[in-house]
Amino acid sequence: MLNEREIESCYLGQFIPVHYHHNMLMDQNRMHSFKSAIHYAVKPGAKVLELGGGTGVLSFFAAQAASKVYCVEFNPDMVKEARKFLAINQNGHKVEVIHADAFDYLPPEPVDVVICEMIHVAMLREKQVEVIESFKRRYLAKFGGPLPVFLPEAVIMAAQPVEQEYDFEGFHAPIVQFQETNVIYPGTVELAQPAVYSLIDFSQPVDSVFAWEGAVVVEKSGTFNAMRFITKNVLAIVPEESNTIDWLNHYMTLPLGQPVKVAAGDMLHIAFQYRAGGSIPSLQASLRAQVINQRITEQVPAFA
């Protein structure tokens, strides 16, 4: 009998299709950023653990300098894929692909770096936070401190009010949209600056609930009908260059149920709360925004 977590994991990222992992290999922005960060973080002779290895590509990057890489993957199809690919790549023999649940696995020895890319926009759906927090507790109990370096090291999350077009050849459909970050979308109008609502430092305890309440000032008049969520992953901090190696997730835009006209200078009071690894609808259901100006105050629910 499956427990609640196992049932949820079947549709919240644990068993995403193999072709999705193949698409990630073709994401040049993601690949280049992780390769650069791993090249910086993994020193010659290091021991590395990857939680949720997928195709094994990040473990492959680590193996170019590391002496040993433990690559943990729960999906048996991806275990086969990773072993197949690593067998035909340089230094792939340094990677041990282990069929296990990342929630439970601990390496047989202390490691220097932990790579974990179970990342969805806003830390939704996938289990990045829960897996790393579980790992930290169990690792400290078995090996004591210090903790290894985590990759990513930190995450910055922000929310931004936008006007989003939902016309599809005359068919009106307010849907959740994912947009590439390096593309200009004529159907998206930014109404205010992004507001940072969470800063995650994986070397420190991370709360499993994200809650934010704040205000932003409208900079451009239009129709406020959606919230864009932005997730910037700080893969590695490079202090000697006063720089970071980052990876920006696709933007996620959630429709509001009742659009409202806004004018430049209006104040938007916004509040939401959700659980790390939770569903997108759970965030949508909690989203509340109030538009305030000199003339009118009206409540904007997340859904009609």
Automatic annotation (TrEMBL):
Claim: DNA repair is one of the keywords in the record: no
InterPro entries reported in the protein's UniProt record: Arg_MeTrfase, Methyltransf_25, SAM-dependent_MTases_sf
GO-annotated biological processes: methylation
Pfam families: Methyltransf_25 (PF13649)
Span of domain Methyltransferase: 48-137
Protein name per UniProt: Methyltransferase domain-containing protein
Keyword entries, A-Z: Methyltransferase, Transferase
Superkingdom to which the source organism belongs: Bacteria
Record Gene3D superfamilies: Vaccinia Virus protein VP39
Lineage, highest ranks first: Bacteria, Pseudomonadati, Pseudomonadota, Betaproteobacteria, Burkholderiales
Molecular function GO labels: histone methyltransferase activity; protein-arginine N-methyltransferase activity
